[in-house]
Amino acid sequence: MQLFYKGQVYTGRRDVIDPAEQGLMGLSTLRLGSGEVYESQSGEYEIGLVILSGSADVAVDGQAFAALGKRANVFAGPAATVYIPRDSSYRVEGKSADFEAALCLVKADKKLAPFVVKPEEVVINHRGGQSWKRDVHDIIVDNGEGKVDKIVLGETYGDPGNWSSFPSHKHDQSIPGVETELTEIYYFRVKPENGFGVQILYTEDRELDEAFVIRDQDSVLIPKGYHPVVAPPSVQVYYLWFLAGSKGRKMQPHDDPQYKGLHALVK
């Protein structure tokens, strides 16, 4: 199974991780200039359209959401996001020269109503301590209950030189009250753009034991295992993350016992 996807120069829509191949979820990115239009159907997938930069008008099944997006890039503030239900027609018209969005696709059973999460509605959590500090932006998490079918969605901003998704955690088993089985995708941006980070994936039995050098616009599929991220000093690593599973959407990660005690060091 392919886990690591390199970023590429592109225009229009780029299908990064094919949901048909993965079975449950996939990732595409979309670039439009001012006045350029992209139209499509969601089919059997619910979509979180996260605006990475620039602004656009978005319409879903004829319902218009105008002038969305105001950040110059992912590091310039919280995102504006449109939830597009399955079996929907949608239209995106760029309103700036630098519009870019991520399309987070999850196979859904139910069709619900479209909605927008505005930047000021994003819940910002300051997590970690010492050398594992980051800000986690919840876009569609608890607020998605009853409004989405499966998708859980947000963004993480690691501090330069820090670990993220740490202490290492996983969510690949269904243990009621302890852990929820959820597949996840990370989409990365790096500041400065010529910087790098490292994504590590491992299981306790080391059946999976991989490390990938992360550059700007790379993506990683996380079907199982612990998945910490680290950046070198002076480099900030951002990642858009979304999860989905068949046993519910409650976030119940299981920490690697070797590092679980680090929580006690956070004040």
Radius of gyration using CA atoms only: 18 Å
Strand content: over 45%
| Helix/sheet category | mainly beta
**Helical proportion, percent range:** under 10%
Second CATH tier, the architecture: Sandwich
Query: What would CATH call the homologous superfamily?
Result: Jelly Rolls
Number of helices: 1
Counting DSSP E segments of at least 2 residues, the number of strands comes to: 23
* CATH domain class: Mainly Beta
CATH topology value: Jelly Rolls
**Ends distance:** 40 Å
Based on Cα principal axes, name the global outline: globular
Trace the largest sheet across and list its strands: 1-20-17-22-14-13-12
State the order of secondary-structure elements, H for helix, E for strand.
EEHEEEEEEEEEEEEEEEEEEEEE
In total, the number of domains comes to 1
Overall pLDDT level? 96
Poorly predicted parts: none
How would the blueprint of this fold be written?
Blueprint: E1 4-5, E2 12-17, H1 19-22, E3 25-32, E4 37-41, E5 45-53, E6 56-60, E7 63-68, E8 81-84, E9 89-94, E10 99-107, E11 115-117, E12 123-127, E13 134-140, E14 152-158, E15 163-164, E16 169-170, E17 183-191, E18 197-202, E19 209-214, E20 219-222, E21 229-230, E22 236-244, E23 254-255
Antiparallel strand pairs: 1-20, 2-3, 3-10, 4-9, 5-8, 5-10, 6-7, 6-9, 8-11, 12-13, 13-14, 14-22, 15-21, 16-23, 17-20, 17-22, 18-19, 18-21
